[in-house]
Amino acid sequence: MHVKVKEAENRNFVARYLRYNNWGFSTPIRTSKWSEIAKPLPSPPHHVLEDPDVTSTLESHPHLFRIVTPINIDRFEQLLSSHPNRPFVDSVLDGLRNGFWPWASYPTDYPSTHEASTLPPQDETQREFLFKQRDIELEKGRYSEGLRALLPGMKTTPILAVPKDGGSDLRMVTNHSKEPYPQNGMVDKEAMGKVPLDGMRVLG
Could you tell me the superkingdom of the organism this chain comes from (predicted)? Predict the structure, then answer.
């Protein structure tokens, strides 16, 4: 048993992501039911779509911004044809086809282009791990090809190798909160709200 799981059991603690699987908590709203009252997902604001740095990079390097998803979008759309909340469904379909916007805004003190500094891997094991993870993402089409320099409007996000399972293994972490100009600082968390996720209890 993992040390964290054992600790949680000793403290009679249920992790937040597991609470909808625990019969001791009240029955949550089903995701399907929530989708009937959910507000449409946001689209990029006009000031972003009209930003000269953003538009020039998108137009000159469209191959860097492919949208990759395992979802059969056309079939998904057919299955949702009778869904009562059309604005929400249409916003989800648009996001799957054209990309989602994370309730973000550009703070006035954020530069258009920024390369966040990050510490190098601590040892060769971490370095090889990060290279391996990069290659996996490239093979699956979830990473774009490398660049020698950032294009206008781009920002980098530090990626780290962090020990897990008591140090016997590694996991890759993307640091969206790296200062200065953290990407998480651009997201309106109140507007984003929370989404109920179906757990085992919802399934019966």
Answer: Eukaryota
Give the pLDDT confidence score for residue 19 in this predicted structure. Answer: 54
Q: For 103-135, write each residue's pLDDT tens digit.
A: 888 888 999 999 998 889 989 999 999 999 999
List Cβ neighbours of 172 (8 Å cut-off, separation of 6 or more).
129, 130, 133, 159, 160, 161, 162
To the nearest 10°, report the CA torsion of 174, 180, 182, 188. Answer: 160
Count of structural domains, the chain: 1
Distances (CA, A) of 8 to 1, 14, 41, 199, 200: 11, 7, 35, 19, 19
Contacts of the segment 48-56: beta carbons below 8 A, 24+ positions apart: 48/106, 51/112, 51/153, 52/152, 53/112, 53/113, 53/152, 53/153, 54/152, 54/153, 56/152, 56/153
Name residues whose C-beta falls within 8 Å of residue 2's C-beta, 6 or more positions apart in sequence: 165
Task: Give domain status of residue 102, yes or no.
Answer: no
| Residues in CB range of 84: below 8 A, 6 or more apart | 36
Model-level pTM? 0.74
